Structures are given as structure tokens and as C-alpha cells.
TrEMBL record, chains A, B:
Pfam families: Cu_amine_oxid, Cu_amine_oxidN2, Cu_amine_oxidN3. This is Amine oxidase. Residues 181-280 form the Copper amine oxidase N3-terminal domain. Residues 81-91 have a biased composition (Basic and acidic residues). Its EC number is 1.4.3.-. It comes from Salix viminalis. It is an enzyme of class 1 (oxidoreductase). GO terms for cellular component: apoplast.
Amino acid sequence: MESRNFLRFLAISLSVSLVLFFTWVHLPYAPQPNTTTDLLYCSTNSPWCTSKNRFQSINKPSTADNILEKPPNPKHHKVHNHESDTPHHPLDPLTISEINRVRTILKSHALFKSSSPFAFHSVVLEEPDKTLVLQWKKGDSLLPRKAAVVARVAGKSHVLTVDITTGEVAVQETGSRSGYPTMTIEDMTSSTWAPLSNADFNRTIIQRGVDLQDLACLPISLGWFGESEENRRLIKVQCYSMEGTANFYMRPIEGLTVLLDMDSKEVVEISDKGRDIPIPKAANTDYRYSAQKINPEMMFVNPISIEQPKGPSFTVEDEHLVKWANWEFHLKPDPRAGVIISRAKVRDPDSGEMRNVMYKGFTSELFVPYMDPTDAWYFKTYMDAGEYGFGLQAMPLDPLNDCPRNAYYMDGVFAAGDGTPYVRSDMVCVFERYAGDIGWRHSESPITGMEIREVRPKVTLVVRMAASVANYDYIVDWEFQTDGLIRIKVGLSGILMVKGTSYVNTNQVPGQQNLYGTLLSENVIGVIHDHYITFYLDMDIDGSDNSFVEVNIKKQKTPPGESPRRSYLKAIRNVAKTEKDAQIQFKLYDPSEFHVVNPMKRTRVGNPVGYKVVPAGTAASLLDHDDPPQKRGAFTNNQIWVTPYNRSEQWAGGLFVYQSQGEDTLAVWSERDRPIENRDIVLWYTLGFHHVPCQEDFPIMPTVSSSFDLKPVNFFESNPILRIPPNVEKDLPVCKPAASA
Amino acid sequence: MESRNFLRFLAISLSVSLVLFFTWVHLPYAPQPNTTTDLLYCSTNSPWCTSKNRFQSINKPSTADNILEKPPNPKHHKVHNHESDTPHHPLDPLTISEINRVRTILKSHALFKSSSPFAFHSVVLEEPDKTLVLQWKKGDSLLPRKAAVVARVAGKSHVLTVDITTGEVAVQETGSRSGYPTMTIEDMTSSTWAPLSNADFNRTIIQRGVDLQDLACLPISLGWFGESEENRRLIKVQCYSMEGTANFYMRPIEGLTVLLDMDSKEVVEISDKGRDIPIPKAANTDYRYSAQKINPEMMFVNPISIEQPKGPSFTVEDEHLVKWANWEFHLKPDPRAGVIISRAKVRDPDSGEMRNVMYKGFTSELFVPYMDPTDAWYFKTYMDAGEYGFGLQAMPLDPLNDCPRNAYYMDGVFAAGDGTPYVRSDMVCVFERYAGDIGWRHSESPITGMEIREVRPKVTLVVRMAASVANYDYIVDWEFQTDGLIRIKVGLSGILMVKGTSYVNTNQVPGQQNLYGTLLSENVIGVIHDHYITFYLDMDIDGSDNSFVEVNIKKQKTPPGESPRRSYLKAIRNVAKTEKDAQIQFKLYDPSEFHVVNPMKRTRVGNPVGYKVVPAGTAASLLDHDDPPQKRGAFTNNQIWVTPYNRSEQWAGGLFVYQSQGEDTLAVWSERDRPIENRDIVLWYTLGFHHVPCQEDFPIMPTVSSSFDLKPVNFFESNPILRIPPNVEKDLPVCKPAASA
């Protein structure tokens, strides 16, 4: 679509939406359709599944619509009909029919029988007890299937367990904790349109010179900063002009913030403090390929591809069990965590046995504080998983670009705010990766003159998702290596959240004035911010009872006269007894290794079997511990924490993060200082980034990545990839350019 | 070759070598052949070029020999005849005829006319003045060609400049600095055999139960620990049993150290303190594929490959000028540094102009201290570049395994100890890499509902070499990204230097006894050690005069009542005035970005153009600053240093590192605290690893990597890869399994 046509399309869509919207806001909550089949088709085929496009496609979408929405590479994209899905594994996510059954069960439950408005904020599998899952083997009958439901009814949050077989509903006590559940997609989309029903708002927009039909607004979680923001579910809305660009993020209507009641959709307050700030120009902001003028001087590269002519070496059994090389794990999409890896096991090369490594691993929470204390910015301290749903924001991946051609795609099946199931297609990809790297090598050198050169290529398996939380894109990779290492990598791309300014050049900025960021383009400031991504890692090294060992690398002085050396380093093992022993801040000049070991199991020569967490580049949060955002994001106060396994402690920022006050975080749990030695323990790792934007991040950011590793340490008796074969020419594919095929 | 045959072959070779050796040690230095052609062929075709195999192949090798030595993939391996090489660029390395000319010139020089023994420790291009190189353009006549020669004559080191055209020889004043030049290959190989001429040594070996023909010895640089080791060139030799395994490194004859005079080859002292320590068993130590019993339960992966059916997108002009996508740089092998990247320039996507980024970058020095202060270990504090020659130890790469199939190979042309040129074939590879990564991406989310999904794959160009410094293998990658980023990555693989012990299980070790490492297998301890790799990075951001800016990320408190936020982070720019301002130790809780900027050039909106160095995982040296090894390796006292450009300051540990006392290191130069603002400056970066070995490192180590980046920061006006196209199916190759081709 040309950019002019696209704008026309947007304008028309917007007008239609507005009409629909005014209908919508007069309904108490999402209407309950009689059958779900139509909705299901809508969402199976569309990358987006919101109230907006569900209205538009209440009937099966036409073929024309489908073409637009289908991934560009149908050859490699097998559309899976999820209607007949059945669970096979105790950890398999809820199926469409199970979600429908939950809705039916709850419909007749007392809570939902009144005429009070309600919404389902989460409908996911209630995982069976860990002990039961550990005992379960393929062929056993499936454990009782239950759903964990978070619902809001008449303004109150409820956590329910629904037994899908018996229909029993148990209401859990959530206590008096602060905060609200993760927003529904409907909360977010309806909030973006709600200010338009306010005449003052519309007047303000027009005064800023923006046509209402060019308006794009974002729902911004407002954190918690004190009493004025308690006891009602609030959100802030800020808007942009999409005139002349699809990249409206670069055209902020600066300083305009609408405080909205998310339940009533009532405008509580409009703050307009940026009237003198021009809206930055649209020129050079569009990033779509169709909008580019291609510079012929720019040299491109010849086609390049990862190829496996005999196909991938992994299988996905029963939809969710991935088996590859010496690895096996359960993989499922999750609306809050994005991707959950469970029961990761690796084969011992000597015994052939599959050995437990990790019971469960996922992105537990994100914390993204912006570093501008002024009116329109101070509250931007996002917690993307608990507020927006990291999985809800994970869009369909682009075949050939988000993942290589040899990738396998997995869909997510989620529940909408009204409880109806929908499919987020191609949400996760799995692929084998060969990057030209070396698994191990050795050449004999001229020193010995022996003619030896042994090299093994490194091939890995990657599980990927990409969450687009409004402007930002987070790429999360779980990479499995045949040597037993798991690399967890987070890539940041997408679009900056920028601030309008009247400056067009840094030479206009008075000496001491703080811009809170970098001038990226005329009238555009990229505001400094941090990203913290906290991972839940329930390590089970050869069994559930493990210990956390800090192996401190400490300088030793030699006694005078004993050695020509004055100093050397020694590795000193300290087993953590309680949680406080395992609250770790990294120190370059007082370094340690961090092991999770099974103290009851030793190698042949007597080392405790273990895995270590190996940090790479990271950043630490430097905010005041009593700053409200840091209280809520206190799980970033350390880089590592270890807690005893507790099934209620999965979300580092708390179960109800939205507007929470920080009394249910990992930091609070850990203060209880429970014993963690030789117990079932959970390791928490926070990966951090300081982001001082630069012009290269405009108008869209080249990916920046960092990672950390879970690495076997005396887990195997010896190098587990000693016996893998080298590449030989006769095994490699014969490839031709596509054009000459 | 089967392992039995291999042993027989070794035994025979050894016997032949011994005979040759006894002839050899009675010659003052390497004999001077009349013509070099024969030697040249030997070395072109053999991965090894040592005195040993030069003797064996004084005539052109037979076809049978050739087959053994040729890389396994001749299809992709174009043998280049270097005899007719001529230089095209002022930075091109010396050619074979130039090296021969240098020998001829020096033969008639007074220094070499006496009958005193002499050896050439380095014969490389003397690079023309930087200003001349910067002015030079293709088509200009070549700048005068000169060689920089380091020679030892009658026990004295000399640095000579030889004008290849005029034949003029200038002898440089080297002052009274301590230390000796990098060992020649002949120094190393002859040292390993020298102890065999000592009857006491042979008796000791036999007493240890090792047959002399199973002996493998290593020449170990002994550092410097005081007066007793001064005023003569010494080396320590330690030995291993290669009975039953090609991996003799796992079978140390523990505690036996021979102190040898490297010039006279005289045994100075034999220290034998490990008589009670058994030699570890050979079982399970061989890593060669031919020696493996393959476990059928172990699952392997299907063939996988990086494919470019239209061929690579880069060209190598005139043997050394690499042009790829928006990059151009000069690449050459170097006997000391391994690989030198010069004149790296990137194309500006707006102006089309090639812009200077880096004048010269290379591995300047390594420092590898082992952490065991006992007699046979305290001195192991290797400086691999200055002592052994990082390039001299870079062996021919294994096509298909060291580099993917689409790789291009470059040979090194070096001079042997007698000044004759030889070819180290396939020493460097260059390849394009697609690893399934994402250059940038953005999807619109349900929040806005816009149907946008734009993703660009990431393709990079890698320059790789692998140096095998005896047991260890260092893989050095320079990876160029189209977004202007350069990633410098070091991978560690190869074989541990291990210590024999009488223990076979940790339960035998008395509580407080320090093993100095990890028990890896019965009787084998992997000793703790560090690796530091220090890079010389002469950044020239849009010109030579640059400044170093530390952008400190500092917590600010908000004045009470001004904001609901109590704290935020601010980026504070501090321009380094002198060297001491730029002696940087990283601090997680007081973080900074480190920019090299051109203070005279700004972007359109007024930011100084620059590059930043972005650390990833690293380690800092913790040894006492007054410990002799740390004095010599004092260049690792900081992670970053910045010095004014000085053509004599290239080697962080000093020009003459061997047995040096540390008075010519980067740390000493930097203490002069010279001005560095708006000058031609050099950035030094040290990448570090603490290595506490684990059983997975036995008998050969899976690669461990770390890296750092040089990244544009306000260098471009905007994202330089905005306009690259996405992948589409029609461009990708059509591949078949080789068997069905």
C-alpha cells in the first residue's frame, strides 16, 4: 500500500472505529457472543485480535482480508486448526475447548450471575503440583486439568481455580494486596480512544494543530506515586500525530497527558504543559520498506540463508514437547510471560539418561524506568509483563526475517477479556542455528609439530519470541547448545519513546539545562531509560533439592619466601544457607561464579554436579530504593536472588503489578530469609541495560542484545560434545540461487 | 591413521628427529640455504614450517605428503602462489621477494658479517608514517617499502630498518630495556628437544616410567622473577607422556622442570619435585574423531550450512583490501599480532562518502597468569603475543569447521629464524554470517492495531583467525555489521594446562589443602588461571584528532516537592584531558559509556560524531600490582586506557616482552599523563576471563567466548540500515542434500 493510500485507509478505519467506539463505550463490558467460532476464525487468521477488529470481522473475514493478514511465506507456514486441540502433557496450555468450558462453568457461577460488569484478565492452565508433574510419564493418564482465572467483577479482583472436569470453582483469598491484574487487550485499546469522548481533550488536540483523524494515542501505565492514585484503576493516555508517517511515535504531542479512569473510561484530568513545543516533522521517520527511497550507492549483500536440505533435526511431539540433539523440553506460549520452558532435560553422553536441568524458566517481569522527572514523563516506569502482558504483546513473527527459513512456528491460544479463546498465530519460532561458530577446536602448533587439527562446528537450537510493547520490541531467545549450555538472550529493537522539544540543535541549549536525553533530530529528544528483564529459573539439577554456591575468586598472598609469586587467585566455595546469602550484586573486583548444585550427587572424582549462571554485559538499577518506582521494581535491587520454591512466588513484581505499591515483590519475599540449602530452589536473574539514546536509534533502533548463560559445571564427567562429528563436504547441501532453480 | 599406526609414525619420526637434532645442536644457528625456493614450497604446502619438517622436506614434497597436508576441501581452497606477489597498498605485508631482498641486504651488513651466530626474530613491514598512508590513494605510486627487522646477533638484540629499494639499513637505538624479542619457531622447537642431550634428564624421565620415545615437551616462557633470571635468555621445559594418546597435555610428568639456556641450549637446572605423583592415564583423553567410539544413543543434527548460492558479497582487492556492503578495510596477517585491520572505513548512507573509523586495530598482547605459586607452576604467566608470536601460532584453518563453506582464506607470509620467507596457508578466513539474528524490527501491537510488521535480518562479515599457543586455542573474530558496529570476539578452546596429583577423588583431599584448581579426572587438576587479551585500537573518527569522553550515568535526586519521582539518571559528559583521566576500571554501580569523538565535527542537530566502546562480560586482574607477573602485565591494571598516538607504542607489554621486567608497558607510558584531548589517540581495551576449570573442559574445552563492541554513537545522522531490504522467498537459495545432488 502506498503511503497516501495507507493514510486514507487509516482515516476511513478511524471514522468507522469512532462510530463503533461510541456504541462500545455504552456497553458495560465486552458483549458475550453466542458462539465463539466466528471470533476464533478472526483471530486465527489475523495477527491482531482486539475488540476493534473483532467487531469488524464478526463474520468470517473475506478472502481479501485474509491475504493482507497472512504471513508472506505460506509455503513454510502450516496453518494449524486449534479447534480440535487436546492436551497431552500436564503442562500443556489450555486448549480452545478448555477455555470455552471455563467460560461456560463460570457463567453459572455466583460471582458472574449478577449484572455487574466483569472481565477476565487471565485464563491459563493452573499447573498441577510440581511433585505430580515430576512423577508423570508419557502414557500415564493426564493429571486433572484446571484453569487459573483472574477476573475482575464489579471492580474487585478475584483469583479462581476452575476444575475443568468437575466444574468445581475455588475462589482464592488474595488478601488486601495493592495493585490490579494485567490489563486486558480491551482495557488498552478502549483507553486509547476514550479521551475522544471528552470535548476539552478534542479542543486541545485541535489547538495543537492535529486533525482528530490523524490522532494515535497510547495507554501508559502510571505506576504508583501515592494516595491520589489509589483505590481506582487509572491510566494515562498520551497522543501523537500520525500525519505523514506510520511512525507516529516520532511525532509526540508533547506535554499532553490525560488521566483516565480505566473502568469508567471517564477523563479524570487533562494536563497540557507542552503548548509551546512543536510536533516534530514526519520527514524521515517512516521505517517501512515501502516508504523508502533506496540509495543506489548503498551496497547490499547477496542472498544468504541457513540451510538444512534434510530438514530440521528437532521434533515437536504433541504440539509442545521439543526434542533436539541431546535436549528435551516443554515449550508453551503464555499471555504474561511470553514463553515458558519447562522440564528441560539433557542427555548424559555416557549413560544415555535424560537428566533434569530446569523445571521451569520464563521472563517473570520487566522494569523500564525513564529518567525524566517532569510532569509528562516521571511516571513512565513500565512493568511490561505484569501491566501489559509480555505474551499478549508478542506479535506473529515474520517468517524469513524474524526467524530463518528452517524455523517451526508455534501459536498461542489465549482468552480475550470476555473469556473467549483466540489464537495468536506464529507467536514463537524454533530453529536450528549455525552461525559459523566453533564448538571446540585444537590444532597442534609448530612447537610440537604434530599434525593434528580437530574442529567441531557449533549448532544450536533457538526458541524465539518478539514482544512489541507499544513502541519497543523485545526479542527473547532461549538458545540450547549441545554442550549443555543454555543462553538466554534479550534483544531490544523497535522505536524509542521520544520527547518533543523546541530545540533543533544542541547549540540552542543553555549550558546547564538538562534535556534528560539526546537530541536525535529536530525537536526530538530520546529520553534516557533503563531496561531490566528478570528471569524466573527453577533449576532442578538432577533432582529438585539443590544448593546455591557462591564460588568467590579471591586473591591470596603467598607467605614471604615461599614462592617467587606474591599473589594468586583461589576459588572459595560458600554454600548459601538462607535467602540473604544469595542476594548478589556483581563486582568486577570481587568476582564470583554462581553455581546451583545438587549436594547429594557427585561426579566420579567427587565434584558436586551443577550448573552455573554466567553473566555477560548487564546494568544495575541505580534509583533510590525508596523511590516509588524502585520500590515496585525492587526485584532489580540485586542481579541474583535465590528463593525456596513456592508456587505462589512466580511474578517478581507481584501477582497484581498494575498500580501496585511494591509489597508483593521478590525483594519482599527474600527478606524473610528462608533456608535455601539442599532444598527445591528458584534462581532469579536480572539482565539490565542503560539506554542513552543516540541518533542511530532514530527513527527505529538497530537491535542491541545482551545475554546470560546457564552452563554445566561438573555436571558431566567430561566434555559432552567430544564425540560429535566434524562437517564434511559430502554432507553439506547443494544450493542454487532461487531464480535459477 | 589409526592410533597404533600414528604412534609408530611418531616413534619413527622421533628417532629420525633425534639424529637430526644432534646434528642440529652443533650448528651455531639455522643453516643458510643457497636458494629459498625449496623451503618455500615446503612451507606453502605444509601447515607447519619448522626446522624439523624443513629438514624432512628439503626437496619438494612428494604428492603423497601433499595429500596429507592439504585442507580437506580443495574445491574451496584456491592455492595461491605467493612467489610473484607484489605490494599494492602502503600497508601490504612484505612479500616473499621483499623478505628475500631484506635477507640479501642484511647478509652484507656489518652486523651479520662476523661469524657470530644470529637469528631474525621478526621481519615485517615497517609501516610508512601515518600521515603519508592517510594521504595515499589508490593509483598513487607506492610509498617507499621498508622492513622492520628484529635480530639477535651474538646475544644482543637489534632493531633495524631496511630500505628495500635503496638497501639502506638504519640501526635503531633500543636503549637498555630489559627483555628479549619474541622467540623464533626454531627457539621453541629446539628447546623442546634440548633436554634430551642431558643424561640426568633422560635418567629422570626413565625413572618416571616414561619411554624416551613417548616424550613430548613444551617450551614455557618463564617470565621474570628477579636477578637470578637476568642477563641470559632462559626457558623452562616441562614434559608429558604421549603414550596411548595424542592428547599428551593430559599426561604431565608433574613437578619436573628443566631450566634451559635458550641460546646455548645448555641445561642450567633440573627441578624434580613430583616423583610421587603418578602420570594420569591415557584413557578418554584423545579428542580426535578417529579415536572416538561413537555412542549410537547420542543424537546428531542434520547437515546445516550458511549458504550463498550467488557467492559472497565481498571482494578482496589486491590481496588485502576487503570491501563488503558499506565497509572497507585493509587486512593482513602478522606474526606477532595475528591479524591487523587497518584503515577501516564505513560508507555514510546519506552522503555516500567512505568515513574513517579506525586507523589500525589488533591484538597487542595477551597475559595468562596461572594461579598456583608452587615450584612447577608459579612462573606460568604467559604473554602469548610478545613471547610466542600470536600470529606465528595461528595454524591453517580447517575449512567447513573453523569457518563456514562460504569463507575466503588468506595466507600469511612470514620469515623464519634464518630470514627465509615461508607461507602459513589459510591463516585467516573472511566470511559473511547470517545467524538468524534480527537487524531491527517493529510490529504494531494490539494497542494501536495498525497492521505493520517490518523486520530486517542481520548479516555480518567476520574476519577470523585461530592461534594455537601450545595447548590453548584462541579464536579471534572481527565482526563488521552494516549498522556500523564492529564486534571483537575472543573464543577460548583447546586443551587445559593441567597438573598431576596423587588424588583420584575429592574425598581424599584433606580439608584445608589447596588444590589450586579442580580435580577433573583421576590424578588430573585443572589449574585456575586468567586470560587477558589487550587490543590496540587506533580510532580515527572522521579524522585523526579525536577526544575520549566518559559519559557517566549518575543518579540525580529531585528537589523535594518538584516531582513524584525521587531519583533519575543523568548522562554527564567528561572529556579526558590527559591519560590519567582515561585509565578506566568498570563499575557496575557507577557506570559510564566510553566515547571516542571527533570534537570538531557535529551532526546536523549538533552532537559530536563518535564511536563508543561497549564492554560485555569481562574480568579484571586481581593480582598484587607489585607481583612480578602483574608488573609485566600491568597493561591489565585497567580495562581501558587512552594514549596519544606514538608509533613506538604498539605492544602493550613492551617491544621486548620475553623476560622483561615491566618497564616498557602501556601502564608505564600512560603514567606520563600526556594530553589526549583533540589529538590523535589510541584506545586500549582489555578483555578478561577468569577460568576455574570444570570437568566439561576435559579432555578438550568447549569454546567460551566474550566480546566487546565498537559502536557508532551519533556518528550517523540516523539508523544507517533503515533502507536495507527484508528477505523474500524468491531471493533465497534452493538447496538439496548433497547426496541427492
